[in-house]
């Protein structure tokens, strides 16, 4: 059984995290990862944090593909993200967005919703959950200040 525990963020702290064991990408496959992330963002766009993501369907598809490449690489899959983007500091990349703890919790709730029904081992799910639960704390950067995607992105 997967323990989908969520621990609170201590603002300003960057707790150590471990990238997922390769078992996650091995069991899910890269093709399965694209479906997982597409399903995830379909849930996100209907959630309480939909305003943090592009509303334009074409832009959302780009976010899905881009972020899927990141997560595939983090899980030990092909390095398409780094080949395309080079090294990216995800904390700095998210600085232009206002990400409160409440948004992190909603994001994790959406992730749990897509992970639970996956037909892969609990061990694989757990290693991915443990990564996203801790790493997501690194992206919490302030109290709620923006209400739309456009408000959060510095144009």
Radius of gyration: 15 Å
Query: Considering DSSP H and I runs of 4 or more, what fraction of the residues is helical?
Result: 55-70%
The CATH superfamily bears the name Globins
Work out the helix count.
Answer: 7
Number of domains: 1
Here the CATH topology equals Globin-like
Beta strand count: 0
How would you sum up the global shape? globular
Features:
155 residues; Globin-like; single chain; mainly alpha; 7 helices; 56% helix
State the gist of this model.
This protein has 155 residues and is an all-alpha fold. It contains seven helices and no strands.
Task: Please explain how this structure is put together.
Helix 1 (23-44) crosses helix 6 and helix 5 runs antiparallel to helix 6 (122-139). The chain has a single domain (23-141), classed as Globins (Globin-like), CATH 1.10.490. The protein has helices at residues 23-44, 57-74, 80-85, 90-93, 101-115, 122-139, 149-152. The chain has 155 residues and is mainly α.
Please outline the helices and strands.
Elements: H1 23-44, H2 57-74, H3 80-85, H4 90-93, H5 101-115, H6 122-139, H7 149-152
């Amino acid at each position: 059984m997967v323990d989908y525990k969520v621990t609170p963020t201590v603002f300003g702290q960057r707790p150590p995290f471990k990238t997922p064991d390769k078992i996650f990408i091995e069991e899910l496959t890269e093709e399965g990862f694209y479906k997982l992330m597409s399903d995830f963002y379909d849930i996100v766009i209907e959630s309480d944090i939909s305003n943090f993501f592009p509303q334009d369907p074409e832009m959302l598809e780009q976010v899905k593909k881009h972020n899927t490449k990141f997560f595939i690489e983090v899980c030990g899959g092909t390095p398409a993200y780094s080949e395309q983007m080079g090294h990216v500091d995800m904390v700095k990349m998210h600085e232009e967005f206002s990400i409160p703890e409440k948004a992190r919790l909603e994001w994790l709730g959406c992730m749990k919703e897509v992970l639970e029904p996956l037909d892969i081992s609990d061990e694989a799910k757990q290693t991915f959950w443990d990564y996203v639960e801790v790493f997501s704390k690194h992206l919490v950067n302030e109290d709620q200040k923006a209400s739309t995607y456009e408000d959060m992105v510095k144009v």
